[in-house]
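Structure in, sequence out. Go:
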């Protein structure tokens, strides 16, 4: 008899405990709807306001620079070119890079077609610190060796290429109205480069 009573008592206690758990779960769900829903709506609204009024969509802005031309000593500033209504072509290179040396052929054709007649502004920039950093004389000798006629600039601290998101040579970027419209790492043929330039010039 005692055993039956004990089992009945334990069953009642178990059922009471289950009822309490169910009641707590229901209360929690009610609070979740009462408190969680408004918080969720608030987060959605704040996100919408941020992206609607504060976050600038579109292409990234091009970092500014001011560098000396390795051969002539003339100082060039991106502020004079990035917002002048023309397309600006910038190549990042290293004088010891075999792919950069091979890229000079297509770039000379690009200069003859677009740079020489001022259809685009064109610059090559060296000095990025990868294994060995180019000096101003390295860049000057490279320009002379391959008879390159557009400005070859020296980045003394070697940071600009990294600022543009590049880590290998050669890398190229097209800028229009202060915005980056095209980027590429690796060699490109004249036809490939010309195709991109024609899109934005």
């Amino acid at each position: 008899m005692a055993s039956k009573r004990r089992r009945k008592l334990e069953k009642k206690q178990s059922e009471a405990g289950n009822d309490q758990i169910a009641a707590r779960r229901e209360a929690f769900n009610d609070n979740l709807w009462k408190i969680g829903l408004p918080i969720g709506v608030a987060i959605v609204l704040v996100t919408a306001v941020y992206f609607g009024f504060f976050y600038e969509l579109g292409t990234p802005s091009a970092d500014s620079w001011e560098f000396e031309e390795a051969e002539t000593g003339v100082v060039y500033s991106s502020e004079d070119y990035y917002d002048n209504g023309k397309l600006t072509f910038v190549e990042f290179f290293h004088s010891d890079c075999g792919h950069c040396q091979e890229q000079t052929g297509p770039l000379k054709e690009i200069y003859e077609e677009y740079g020489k007649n001022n259809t685009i502004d064109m610059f090559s920039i060296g000095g990025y610190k990868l294994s060995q950093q180019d000096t101003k004389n390295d860049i000057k000798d490279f320009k002379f060796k391959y008879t390159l006629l557009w400005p070859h600039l020296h980045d003394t601290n070697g940071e600009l290429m990294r600022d543009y998101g590049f880590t290998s040579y050669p890398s190229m970027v097209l800028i229009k109205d202060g915005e980056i419209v095209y980027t590429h790492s690796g060699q490109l043929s004249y036809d490939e480069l010309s195709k991109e330039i024609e899109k934005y010039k």
